Amino acid sequence: MNKSRNYILVVLIITSLLLAAPIRVLYRVDMRQDKLRTLDRGSGTYFSTVDLARILACRYYVNPERQKIVLYIANHRVKISAKSSFIIIDDQVLQMPMFTKVIGEDVYVPAEAFFSIIKRTVIPGLTYNSKRQMLDIDIVNFNIIGLAIEDKANGTIIRLQTKDQFKDGNISSFIHDNGWFYLTVVGGIADSSVIVRADYGKAVRRILVDQLDESVQLAFQLRPKIENQEVYLNRDPAEIVITLRTPVIDSMARLKSLRERWYLDTVVLDAGHGGKDGGAIGRYGTKEKDITLDIVKRVGLLLEKNTNIRVIYTREEDVFIPIAKRPKIANAANGKLFVSIHTNATSNRKIRGFETYLLRPGKTADAIEVATRENAVIKLEEQENNYFELSDEALIMATMAQSAFMKESELLAATIQSELAKRLKSPDRGVKQAGFYVLIGASMPNVLVETGFLSNAQEEKMLKKPSYRQKIAQSIYQAIVAFKNSREMVLAEE
Question: What is the DSSP string of 155-199?
Fold first, then answer.
């Protein structure tokens, strides 16, 4: 009995020492205000799941032996485990960037990451402001309220019941090579609890609902091959009707081949410039080619040490590799990911920060300037005439050839920016698009990372520090691992 009391006393003392300023809560159903218990562990604010259950007045179940808590929020089951970065919402496995913490029988969860996931999947009206430590909970009115799927001899019909009559221009859709059909509805707010519990029929294996601020994206994982698709609006009753035309019999060999194609087992790392091409040079003589090679090797070492991913380098020493050869190296190695690492430079020496680029026509003057500088290396090559002029039209044709990988490239770029922003104090300049020769022809998701400006004296000093380059490498490594996990989650079910 004394041991039990002592344990409880120790837990209470530890909790009191770790407790931080609470998150203020406004629950708009009844305009009730409350406070959510938190911890501050240096890496961000963590909140008590037990306290959240109290505030939401939702049922919850605690398994102290397995250190798990299950919350029942708005017809959804949310499973949270101690010392884990994964949470399970119904049957959907989602990952946060940090692990949960456990104190006694309570699990403390990273606030910003958790509430972002809950907003997308469970409560679209939830808003968390990390700077103000404020949680605003608003139960919204759904305008996509039902789902029916009909299997036909030559395909599948998906009907989304709606309250509002949407405009044609607010709806877009596409079929991805990985077997998913994506539908985006601007202004749509979907009742995911109804949609994910619908009868999927024979053609649909899985449905995911991603609620954003101004739109909703519904993703349908399909079993058979889709030949073409069409979306139209029905007026009476109000509904979005999707027709997916499929062969009657699909090839199991093709499905196996598709799974093998998307399994991420090889990453190609490209250190920008090299040899006679020094790249950008800072005020203190720092060369881009040296910085990029060092960062690439650090990323590769982390991957080789901590994962089963095979790492391919386009160069492992200070040698000149023609731009066109780099994506060819990636393709020849059957790479599943291509990451080209660079440092930036501009005439304005005050500008600093990191950014990640996708292969698309440049939309901003600075993006075009970056691409022009990086592409200038072709002047050092013996066969410069091998490169076509990168007009917008030519770039559109090039990106169409790689369109199967565009969504994955966007996800990877966003993840890299997010991870860099966690570790670097330099400004986050976001995900951008421009025409880079080095990305053309890479038959896999691909991005180009500008890790900082050598033209900025302060940033050059930082880039010269091994510890700073290690932070960059750690960020890119974490982004690749997170991308691998999210991508292979799609393939987890046959």
Answer: EEEEEEEESS---GGGEEEEE-TTSEEEEEEET--B-HHHHTTS-
More confident residue, 358 or 293: 293
3-state secondary structure of 304: helix
| 420, 475 contact by CB (below 8 A) | yes
Which of 459, 477, 429 minimizes the C-alpha distance to 267?
477
Residue 380 predicted with pLDDT over 70: no
Judgement on whether residues 478 and 434 belong to the same structural domain of the protein: yes
Q: Look at the pTM and tell me if it is higher than 0.70.
A: no
Domain count of the chain? 3
pLDDT, tens digit (0-9, with 9 covering 90-100), for 152-182:
766 788 999 998 788 888 899 998 888 899 9
Q: Which domain holds residue 418?
A: 260-489
* Contact indicator for 97, 111 with CB cutoff of 8 Å: no
Regarding whether 412 and 291 lie in a shared domain, the answer is yes
Do 341 and 450 lie in one domain? The reply is yes
Q: Say how far apart CA 361 and CA 390 lie, in whole Å.
A: 9
Name residue 258's amino acid.
L
- CA-to-CA distance for 216 and 239, rounded, in angstroms? 15
Q: What is the CATH number of the domain that holds 181?
A: 2.60.40.3500
265 with 413, same domain: the answer is: yes
Same domain as 433, residue 390: yes
| Residue of 16 and 300 predicted with greater confidence | 300
Regarding whether 312 and 419 lie in a shared domain, the answer is yes
**Domain of residue 342, CATH code:** 3.40.630.40
Spell out the long-range contacts of 393-396 with Cβ–Cβ below 8 A and sequence spacing 24 or more: 395/359, 395/360, 395/361, 395/435, 396/361
Measured between its terminal Cα atoms, the distance across the chain in Å is 52
pLDDT at 237 over 90: no
Q: Which residue has the tokens 């009115």?
A: 141
How do beta strands 215-222 and 204-211 pair? antiparallel
Token pair, residue 262, equals 């998307």
